[in-house]
Amino acid sequence: MRECIDGASLAQALIHAAASIDLQKQQINELNVFPVPDGDTGTNMSLTISTAAAELRKKQPRTVGEVAATNASALLRGARGNSGVILSLLFRGFAKAVKDKDTIDGRDLAIALDFGVAAAYKAVMKPAEGTILTVSRLAAAKAADAARRTPNDPEAVLEAAIAEGRETLAHTTEMNPVLKKAGVVDAGGKGFLVILQGMLDSLRGVPMPEGGEDAATEQKTDYAAIAAEEITFTFDTVFIVRKNADFKGVEGFEAYLNSIGDSLVIGEDDDCFKVHVHTDIPGAALTEAQKYGTLELAKIENMRTQAEDLAAGRHIQSTDDLDAVEAQLEGKPMPEVRKIAAPEKKYGVVAVAAGDGLAAVFRDLGADGVISGGQTMNPSTDDIMKEIDAAPAEIVFVLPNNGNIIMAAQQCVPLAEGKKVVVLPTKTVPQGISALMVMDPEADEEANVAAMTEAIGHVRTCEVTYAARDSEFDGFAIKRGDYLALAEHQLFGTDRKLEKLLRRLAESEELQNAEFINIFYGEDVTEREAQRSLKLFTELCPNAEITLLSGGQPVYYYMISAE
Questions:
Q1: Which of the residue ranges 108-117, 271-280, 510-519 would you say has the lowest mean pLDDT?
Q2: Same domain, 433 and 508
Q3: Half-sphere exposure of 362 (CA within 13 A, CB side)
Q4: Tell me: the pLDDT tens digits for 476-492?
Q5: Quick one: average pLDDT of 30-39?
Q6: According to the model, what pLDDT value does residue 242 have?
Q7: Element (H, E) at 267
Q8: C-alpha distances in angstroms, 306 versus 241, 286, 551?
Q9: How many domains, in total, are found in the chain?
Q10: Which of 30, 221, 280, 338 has the CA that lies 20 to 30 A from 62?
């Protein structure tokens, strides 16, 4: 029986976990609710933890605390998609719990898993049941029970957590209406358990997984729509508070912040705590914070409070992760400094788009940087941060243009230095284009955010792709290779004939009532085919001004926007 886990063992366990999920990523991808070929939860989680595995191989930290810190920092930079961001938060909380430890026993492991769950839940203020959060929470609770019985057996604690997690995962289908309609378990929860199992296998001496992906799938999904995310509050507010002498905890402050905003994350160590919150009244948040200590650093995405960005006058050098801010406050050596473009203008824009044509549209509209990515490859937080750093502007608007990239983009807000970052919640490329078209270089930030947000709300997006696998949805059999039309991420229709499906889209109420229609055709559509589609829409939508553009996007034959 292993009585403790040392740094080398933990590092090897994480590397083993990365290999395990790489082997099973396609299996996890198949659990995504969409039958289209861009299901990527497994890919995102694999790429995220692979970043950490590479860093652990390179740095070879010695203690458990050093290993966990290196892992958490790399996960944050490499986080891709919502699942990757949540995974990074789970391990960031883990790292906080073991930061001063050379080794950990079963009790320490259980506490670390619980810290991870707390960190992840704080970052998702409206968590849905039946997700990776549910699986991790109940797994951590079972780990705590096991640790009370066998505090000196970390393998037994981890085994108990995995067993409970698997039981919970099986029930996620009933917990979550979207998963129930699809008939699958949660992909993120599955990925998390694969990672934990990989760690346990390593501790028990199971050989490192080798070879390609396991193409076999335990389940395949029916189609279901992902509920739209909503962002209610406008201003991103980030600040650090050095605790005062009579500090008694952040619980009261947390309750207050939840009453005036959302998207709340509070990270805490012995001397300081760091806050990230979305609110309409950032000044009130800062005022309330001073009851708990001395304000060290503040960043508010509002021109009227720009002068208060560094409230205490402390200059924090820019680095690749959140630990850099904490490092300076604690007097530790700073990590390597990023290269950040000096501001030459008021506003900059960074957009995410897949396809040369779409990238050209954003650049023609004035985007400073376009990150290649989207449906089939979600960029990491670090990818987005590099483009933000390169934008020579005081305020940088980020257009994720994909619902699964928004969370990774938001992680850049507290990482930015020398400029403000505003993430607009664009879920499609047409939304991003419309938002950028109304940005006014002479307007103040508040007016621009309002105008761009309003423009996003006016755009309706249809996407035409194909079914990557057989699927059942509402009793209708979708066959692999069928053409699929999605309208605002809802299944609009399927057909074996592309032209028939396009005709039905053109005759839909949304497009019949549109004043402007933009048709972006993908890399698998010839110009001649695109012109035929343009002719079809021109005939069937006579009241709309229609534009045809080569987007060059993969996966989607057509992206069609209606305004």
A1: 271-280
A2: no
A3: 29
A4: 678 888 898 888 888 88
A5: 62
A6: 83
A7: strand 261-268
A8: 18, 13, 37
A9: 4
A10: 338
Among 341, 423, 347, smallest CA distance to 381 is for: 423
pLDDT attached to residue 159: 96
For tokens 């191989």, the residue is: 57
Residue ranges of alpha helices (H) inside 347-444 are: 356-364, 381-390, 406-410, 429-437
- Residue 466: beta bridge partners? 483
Amino acid identity for residue 382 in this structure: D
Phi then psi dihedrals of residue 400, to 5 deg:
-70, -35
Structure tokens at 385: 């941060």
Assess whether pLDDT exceeds 60 at residue 309: no
CA distance 478 to 239: 50
Of the candidates 120, 157, 121, 152, the residue with the CA atom closest to the CA atom of residue 142: 157
Specify the CATH number for the domain of residue 154: 1.25.40.340
C-alpha 518: how far from its chain's center? Answer: 28
| Together in a domain, 363 and 436 | yes
Residues 199/143/249/318 CA torsion (nearest 10 deg) = 10
Decide the pairing of beta strands 420-423 and 393-399: parallel
Is there a single domain that holds both residue 159 and residue 269? no
40, 128, 194, 225, 396 from 263: Cα distances, Å: 24, 14, 28, 23, 20
- Are 415 and 489 members of one domain? no
Percent of the chain with pLDDT over 70: 84
* SS3 category, 176: coil
222 falls within a domain: no
Cα–Cα distance for residue pair 294/10, rounded to 1 Å:
37
- The rounded distance, in Å, linking the Cα atoms of 155 and 164 is 14
Q: What is the mean pLDDT of residues 138-153?
A: 94
Q: Is residue 523 part of a domain?
A: yes
Residue 236: is it exposed, middle or buried by C-beta count within 10 angstroms (0-12/13-18/19+)?
A: buried
pLDDT digits (tens, 9 = 90+) for 2-28: 889 999 999 999 999 999 999 999 888
Domain of residue 402: give its range. Answer: 345-458
pLDDT tier at 316 (50, 70, 90 boundaries)? very low
Fill in the amino acid letter for 379.
P
Q: Cα separation of 316 and 298, whole Å?
A: 11
Residues 492 and 509: beta-carbon distance below 8 Å: no
Is residue 473 very low, low, confident or very high in pLDDT (cuts 50, 70, 90)?
A: low
Q: What is the CATH number of the domain that holds 480?
A: 3.30.1180.10
Q: Is 50 helix (H, G, I), strand (E, B) or coil?
A: helix
Which H or E element spans position 140? helix 132-149
pLDDT at 476: 60
Q: What is the pLDDT of residues 197-241, one digit of tens each?
A: 999 999 999 998 875 333 333 344 333 332 333 346 667 777 888
HSE at residue 448, side-chain half, CA atoms within 13 A, is 23
Residues 563 and 363 sit within 8 Å (Cβ to Cβ): no
Q: Tell me the pLDDT band of 336, cut-offs 50, 70 and 90.
A: very low
